[in-house]
Amino acid sequence: MSGRSALLLGATGAVGKKLLAELLASNEWNKIGEFGRSVTAPENMPPGQRDSRLEQKVIDFENLDAAGLKDGRWDVVFVTLGTTRAQAGSAERFEKIDREYVVDACRAAKSDDPAHEQRVVYLSSAGANASSPFLYAKSKGLTELALARLGYSETIVFRPGLLKGAERADKRLGETVFGYVTGALSHVSPNFEIQVPMLAKAIMNAGLLGSSRLPAEVGAKKAGVEGASFTLIDNKGSVLLSRAQET
């Protein structure tokens, strides 16, 4: 791909805002779309990084036909959209936002041109498992498989550990407590936590490189099930990929 276009869904979240900054700072993208229930306000835009390549659009996930997602002919669709049950207010609302909105938006953004190679890069979570008895892990696992079935040229999934340095409006007690544990363990192994800016950089690099060009040391592997396979990058791989050079 040369002069690529990128669509970002979920740019106002902890990882999404850092990913948007990475996209804007890179010369690899000739068009960047920030579509979501809300978009980044001008005063919150990274300094000096507001430019004509950026298209911002508030969309209604309940009426995606009117969103025009397909019109952008996006080469890479980045998804950092997600929520928690507490934020959503109920299990049903959580699944709608965390899975249905994500899958439906990616379906709407998929090109009708069979010659147009598109990849989708999805931020999932450590422990994601479609068969999990736990709501959060199950939703992430089901979303991974649903995205892999959409027919994109390839699907890349990140399952990072604890997000360090996440700038959230809500303070999550579980993350704070678990952070003390992973912080100690990180001195032994890089598999437990990752700085948010590093994760954002890794996600962008995956979108640029694609599965076939990922460095071997990243340790990406094929995952999923028959008819719904994807490339999986774990926490250690994310750390290593964040250091890869754009090409």
From TrEMBL:
Gene Ontology biological process terms, A to Z: import into nucleus
NAD-dependent epimerase/dehydratase domain residues: 7-127
One GO CC term on file: mitochondrial outer membrane
Matches recorded under SUPFAM superfamilies: NAD(P)-binding Rossmann-fold domains
Cell compartments where the protein resides: Mitochondrion outer membrane
Pfam family, one: Epimerase
Membrane association type: Peripheral membrane protein
Coiled coil segments of this chain: none
Keyword entries, A-Z: Membrane, Mitochondrion
Entry similarity comment: Belongs to the FMP52 family.
Stated name of the protein: NAD-dependent epimerase/dehydratase domain-containing protein
